[in-house]
Amino acid sequence: MSRTRTPRQWREILDAFDRSDLSQAAFCRRRGLALATFRYHRARAAAPPVVLEAPQLVELFAEPTSETPGAIRLELHLPVGPVTIHGHPATIRVSPRI
User: Fold this and answer.
1) Would you write out the chain's pLDDT as a tens digit for each of its 98 residues?
2) Are residues 88 and 64 both part of a single domain?
3) Does one domain contain both 38 and 14?
């Protein structure tokens, strides 16, 4: 039978393990915990918190292209890979994903 525990309950379980002299396997047997689940929560608690940085603004300069008069081409080099956007300025619209 599965049981959902709150983050606070997991913190208490992990603190109890830290105070015990038991191995992970012995502690989990006594508490009726799945060893893999215990290890998952222990690793998650030990990981540094994820700090989201505020988005950085970058000034973009558009240059006319020779392909189509009045059109522009933007090349963005993002962490996920390069992105190319081209078209007329009036039709290009970028919406941020939230």
Assistant:
1) 567 899 999 999 999 999 999 999 999 999 999 999 999 999 999 888 777 877 777 666 666 556 666 677 777 777 788 877 777 666 655 555 54
2) yes
3) yes
